C-alpha cells in the first residue's frame, strides 16, 4: 500500500493549468457544432484572459506573482528546449520561450475525424507499411485550426525554427486544395498538410480531413454536422460558457479501436468489445472556467447507467464514507474513491464468456482453479471489499511515515484469511488488540525454514470495517484512536466544500494549501531530486533531476499559500452518467 505523495501530482497539475492562459470572452476559430458529424473528439481553447477576470483569479495571481519570475522563466525555457542533444542547434533563451508562449494567447481547436465511409484516404505515413493491411489503410484523422490574428509573424518564425531543428530536411510541395494555397510536408515519419490563409493556420495528417477543414473555413458546411449528432447535443450543456472545452463522442470508441488496425488483431477483439457494451457510453464532456477567485473544472461521462454495462465500474456512492471517520481538524489532504469490484468482475466474466464462446464449464474450471489458490470463490473475494479507497495526511511537511491508506471491507475474518493466503511468508508478525489485528508485512523478502530474510516493513491494521496501512505502527494507532470517536471532525473547509455537492458521492478530494509547511516540503523535494540524481541510470536522467532541484530552489515557499487556499472536488453517479466537479480557490 504505497504511492507517490499526492502533492507531486498536484503541483504538476497546477503547472499544466498555469501554462495555458484563460479567456474572458468566448472566442473560437470555428463553431464546433459545424464540424462534420464524424468528429470523434475535439479540444477547444478560447484564448487569453484580460482585465478583472485575470486579476481576480487566485491561480493567475500565483502565476503573475513577481517573486515567481525566476522560476517561471526557467520553467518556460526548459519546456521550450526539451532536446539538449542537438548541440549544433541554438537553445531558446528565456525571453524567446516567453515570446513563443504568447502563441497560446489566441484560440485554437484540435480534433479528430473518423475515416469517411469511402475510406479512399492514403495510409498514415508514420505506420510501417509491412504492418498495414493491404485491403484497408490505417487512418490518422488529427487536425489543428489556429486563429493566428496578430500572431502571423511570430507563427511563421516558430514554424521556421522548428523546421530548422530537424535532422533531415523534409520534402516540401506546394499545391492548391479547396482553393487555398497549401504546403505538403513529407518526412520519413509521416506527411503533414499545412496552410495559412485569412486569419487561420490549418494542419492535418490526411488530405480528406485537410480539405474538409478548409471547406468549412471557407463557409461550406458539411452535409451532416456535429450539431445533428445526439451524443453532442446531450453533452452540449457542459460545452457552453467554458474557457476550455473538451468533447469525445464515446459512441465511436469501438469503431475507432477497430479502425486503428483493420484486419489485424484488433478486429479479432470485436466480440469482446461488443460484450463489454461499449455502446452504453455516449460521450465525455468537460470544461474549465473562472468564477471570481476560483477556477472550476467540470466533467461528465454520459451514457446508459443501467446495470450490465461499463458504468458498473462506478459505485452508486455513499453519503458518509467510512474513511471520513478518520478525519480531524488537522487533516490537510484527503482523497476518497469508490469502485464496484464485483460489478467489474461480473462485467469482465460476461465479456469473456460471450467473446470467446467459452462454455460455462470452461469458465467454472478457471474460477475453480483460482478459488483453490486463494481459498474462496473469486466473486466472494472481490466482495470482501466495499470498494472504498482513501488516503489521508495531517503532517504539514507531508512526512510519508504519517500518511494513512484506507480500504473498506465487509468481513474481517475472511479478509484476514485472504491476506494470509496472498501475503504468505511476508507476514512477519500478527497481533490482536481488541477488535483490531495488526500485521507487520515485509515488502521485500519472506520467511523460510532457513531463517528470516525480510526487510522494508509495512504495517497494516485490520479493523471490523477497514484495512489501514502506514509506514509506522504509531501512525496507525494515532488514526485508529482518532477514528474511535463518536463523530468524525472534518476540517471546516472540507465541510463547506462537501455541502455544495450531491448527497451521495463516489469520490471526494480535499487539499488545504494553507496548512502545508511549504519550506519543509520544498527542502524534502530538493533532497529527493538530489538523491535521484545520484542513483540515476543515465546522464540525461541525472541532469533532469539536477535541473528540477535547481528549479525548485527558485520558488519562494510563501508564494503558493499567498494566493491559493483550498482544492475540493467530488464525483457522483446518476441516471445520466458519472459527473466530476472540482474547485481551486
Could you explain the architecture of this structure?
- This protein has 585 residues and is an alpha+beta fold.
- The chain has two domains: 42-275, no CATH class; 304-410 and 465-584, no CATH class.
- The chain contains 20 helices and 22 strands.
- The strands form two sheets. It has a 20-stranded antiparallel β-sheet, sandwiched between helices.
- A hairpin with a 2-residue loop joins strand 16 and strand 17.
- Helix 4 crosses helix 5 (94-101).
- The longest helix has 18 residues, at 518-535.
- The radius of gyration is 27 Å and the shape is globular.
- The model is unreliable at 1-26, 120-134 and 261-265 (pLDDT under 50).
Strand residue content = 25-35%
Give the integer mean of the pLDDT values.
Answer: 81
Domains, number: 2
Q: How many helices in DSSP terms?
A: 20
Characterize the biggest β-sheet.
20 strands, antiparallel
Q: What shape does the CA trace take? A: globular
Oligomer: single chain
Portion in helices: 25-40%
Number of DSSP strand runs: 22
Structural classification: alpha+beta
Low-confidence stretches: 1-26, 120-134, 261-265
Distance between the termini: 31 Å
Structural Rg = 27 Å
